Amino acid sequence: MYSTASTPPDELAHPSTILIFGASGDLTARKLIPALYTLWKTGYLPDKTQIVGVARREKSDESFRNELFEAVRTSSRTGEVTQADWNTFAQRVHYREVDLQKPKQFDDLKVSLEQLEEQHGLGGQRVVYLATAPSLFLPSIEALDRAGMIPEPYAENWLRVVVEKPFGHDLESAQELSSALGKLLAEKQIYRIDHYLGKETVQNILLFRFGNSIFEPLLNRNHVDHVQITVAESQGMERGRGGYYDQSGALRDVLQNHVLQLLCLIAMEPPSLFRGENIRDEKLKVLQALRPGDPKNIDNWAIPGQYTANEVNGNVLKGYRQEDRIPEVSRRETFVAMEAFIDNWRWEGVPFYMRTGKRMPARGTEIAVKFKLPPLNLFSTVECDGDMCALVEAQQNTLVFRIQPYEGIMLQCSTKRPGMQYQIHPMTMNFAYQDAFEIDLPEAYERLLLDVMRGDSTLFTRSDELEAAWQFVTPVLDHWENRHKDPEFYPAGTWGPDAADRLMTSEGREWRTPSFKKQPH
Ligand code: BG6
To answer: I need a surface site. Which of 7, 19, 249, 262 has the fewest CB within 10 A?
Structure first.
C-alpha cells in the first residue's frame, strides 16, 4: 500500500477570483463547489481565492452558501463536512445577481469584483467558468468584453475562461462558436473542459503506456487484433435531463468527446515532451487520421439505439419515449456503437469499436486492447463436465484499462492448469487502485479546476482537436437526421441492440461483457 498523503500542495496555482456563471445550476452544486471545497480542505486551493456565483435569481450570499452546504455534504469525498469547516470555507463564497443577457449589468459586477478583490488582496486574476446553457456562452463573453473585463492574453491580471460542453452541436456550429470566441479571447485564455481527461485513470493511460517499456512495442497493427472502448451508464433521464438529452443524444453527448478522447490516448504516438501542446498535437494527429467506414453505408458501421421499457430484477424501467420531457415519437439515440480505423503506420487495419449508452446493465468505462492469438494452437484440449464437453484453447490476451468503477489495469493471459497434462487456464493479473493506494481518487473537477488556476491546459481540449472530432461525427449525425427511421431498439437494462452485436459478430469478434464488479474478469 502506497500513501500519497505527503504530496505537497502545488505552489504554482495562483490565487484568483473564480466566477461561476450559471451558478444556480446542477453542475455548480454537484461538481464545482464540492471540488473547490475539497481543494481547500486538502490544502490545494491557493490562499485568498474567492468564489463568486453569478446567476439571474435573487439570492443573498447567505442563502447561496446555505444551499451549497447541503450539496457539499452529500458530494464530499473527504469525509464528513463539519459546520465549522464549512463556515470557514464559505466565507470565500459569494453571490452576485446578474442577467447574463443584460450586458449593462456587467458594469456593476465589475465594480463589485474590484471591491472584493481589493478587500482580499487579490490582483485581478480571474477564472470565469461558463456553467450556463450553451446559448449564453457567447453573450457572456461579449458582455465581459463590453465591460472591459477581458485583459490582454499576457497581462498580469489574467483571465481564463472555462467552457463546458456542448461546444457546438455539429462541425459548423462548433467552428462558428470557435471563431466568434476567438475574436474576443486568445486560445490560451480558453479552457474547453472534457471532464474525462480529469479522471485519474484516464491520465494513467499515458503514464502506463509511456512510463513502461514492455507494453508500448506491442500496441500496434502487428500485435493488436482490435480495440474496444465502452462507456456504459445504467442511468436514464434522471434529474430532468431529458430536455437537454433529446437535443443531444449519445453520439454528441458522450462519443464525440469522452470516447474519442479515450481513443486518442490509447492510440497516440509518444510526445517528445510531456507538455500540453506536444500531447495535444499527438492527439490531433489521431483524430485527423481517424477513418470512418464507407460513407455510402453508414448504417453498417454506426448503429444508433434507443431503450424501451423493461423489467429488471422486479424494477420497472421506463422506455426512453416515456421519460419526462421526451416526445413520444423521439428518434434520439440513447446508444451508439461504431467502428472506425486509424490510417497511420501504427494502426492501419486495426478496428476500433466504440459504444456508449444509457440504461445499460451497469455503469462502467473501460478500454480493452485485444491481442492476436498465438500463431499456433498448441494447447487445445477437450474438457468435459458430465456429458457436456468443450474445446479449451488459448484466448486472446487482453489488456484492460478500467477507467471506472474499481479503477485499475488488468492483463488477461493463459496459464497451465496444474495436473498431468497441458491444459490451458485463463487468468488475470490485476492492478487495482483501491488496493494499492490509501486515498480515494481525486474527482475529475478537482484536478481540472486546479489546472486552470495553474494555467496548465494539458488536460483541456484545443479548438483544432474539437473540430476534428466534430468532423468525424457530423456525417453520421446528418445521416441519422435524414434517414427518417427509428433507431434500433433495445430493452432498458441490456447491452444495446442486436445490431450492435452484429457489427462485431459479422467480423468474427464479440463485445466483451465487462462485469464492472469489484473482482475483475
Ligand atoms: C457527461 C454527459 O458529459 O458525462 C452525461 O453529459 C454522462 O450524459 C456523463 O452521464 C458521464 O460521466 P461520468 O463521469 O459519470 O462517466
So the answer is: 7
